Amino acid sequence: MILIQGKGVSKGVANGPVYFFRRPGITITDAAAADIETEKERIQAAQEKSMAQLNALAEKARQETGEETALLFETHAMFVEDEDYVDCMMDTLEAESCTAERAVEIAGEKFAAMLAAMDDVYMQARAADIKDVTRRILNNMMGVVEGGIDSEVPVILAADDLAPSETIQLDKSKILGFITQGGSGNSHTAILARTMGIPAIVGLGDALKPELGGRTAYIDGETGQVAVEPDEITLAAFQSKYEKQQEMKELMQTMKGQEDVTLDGRKIMVYCNIGSPEDIAAVLSNDGRGIGLFRSEFLYLASDDYPSEEDQFQAYKEAATAMEGRRVVIRTLDIGADKQVGYFGLQKEENPALGVRAIRICLNRPEVFRTQLRALYRASAYGKVAIMFPMITSVWEVKECKRACQKVMAELDAEGVPYRKDTEIGIMIETPASVLVAEELAKEVDFFSVGTNDLTQYTLACDRQANDLGKFFDPHHPAVLRALKIAADAAHKAGIWIGICGELGADLSLLETFLAIGIDELSVSPASVLPLRARIRQSIAKTCTLELLEC
Length: 551
Fold this sequence. Notes:
Layout: E1 2-5, E2 7-10, E3 13-20, H1 36-64, H2 67-80, H3 83-96, H4 100-116, H5 121-142, E4 155-159, H6 164-169, E5 175-180, H7 188-196, E6 200-202, E7 216-220, E8 225-228, H8 232-252, E9 269-274, H9 280-285, E10 291-295, H10 298-301, H11 309-322, E11 327-331, H12 359-364, H13 366-379, E12 384-389, H14 395-415, E13 424-429, H15 432-436, H16 438-442, E14 447-450, H17 452-460, H18 478-493, E15 497-500, H19 511-517, E16 521-524, H20 529-538
Parallel strand pairs: 3-4, 4-5, 5-6, 9-10, 9-16, 10-11, 11-12, 12-13, 13-14, 14-15, 15-16
Antiparallel strand pairs: 1-8, 2-6, 3-7, 7-8
């Protein structure tokens, strides 16, 4: 037996084979081919596999998102078989006597450059398609796994850590739990695990060795313990806890359909945080009453180029439609800091958490902002969409955002495009500056939502991604809770509602404090909805106190 201790960041017990995440990595050399005919056969086999993948993706997209997305995959399938493109690969093989990988790479570069140089805007855009198709063929030729998991059975996914763009691509149906060498409670791996309702442990360090791959492990996301091939005593303890976990899940099912109301009649909205439309199924299965945070950056992280208005519209429309009139709060683009997107070309910063990120990027790049706002307002015609701006620090930023919204609405009016004119506008309270000017900000918007992860980071001067800060990163700190009270008072004075969309919202030990502060909404991971509802229904709001705000 091997025992490894880390930090539990998503509760639950799971067991299964350890599988180390495989990153796509292609190194192509100029080595000469041993046999040209064999290399041709390798290209043909990779083409056939790529065609099968693309056809399957097209059908899946047709069922889940509609014809437009399906058409993209069908177009890629056409490129795989394009006669000129294939001839270029084969001719390069003959002329250069190179490997199949090198021939495919050269053909892809030539065709992408040719399309990019054309005068026709449509054909220029197809250069990105050729690059994507070339990458797919190369991946299949070299055994690179799309989504990072090549396993027939669900696994405990192990990694050094996972970037946001990597978590987007994962095949979530194959993941039982996460274990990582690095990371923190606020890492994207932890956030994904909580959304999925599966255990996760970070900070395992060098003890999480690649040679553990394939061996059976039990993990406890509460204690942070990993047991590889446990002995009988340890196994019994894990199994006992797992059985209790399953009993609790069954008990929580009785909370479905119940109101989110305290014993003395205080109602509170319990919403969900999601990272993509795929997560909506978890919201519905856990009886979430709405979506309090839709992280729209998934569209940017999962793309090789700026997502189009149409791509964004389809994603937002899908969420709005699925929620059937319940509120869907969509946060505008929040990249920068720990969420980097290569094609944005952001300069390297000494302290990116204090740099060009979130709303600062949007206000600096009005066309990017306009594209997203148009998609959001168009989607509002299909449900109760609310728009939320992150990283606000001043009133002038909010006024600029509202001005951008008004311009988009005027455009849509002129074009005869339907949208909801009463779409709510809100902001995230996640900086001390926004807390200190909360009264002025509240006069400009329809709601506040507190991002407690960043608010804690900026209030306590603690990097939320740094696992070694430990007790210094304390979301229960009186300064953080007092900031919540100031923001709540300002919101209610202006007659608007205030919620929490940071992970602190699911902290059951703080529920009574939130009730005393006056928080109107808690947006949590889908798996946290029913336990939170159970605690709300056991609480008496009028007896809740603010004692935790005292030092």
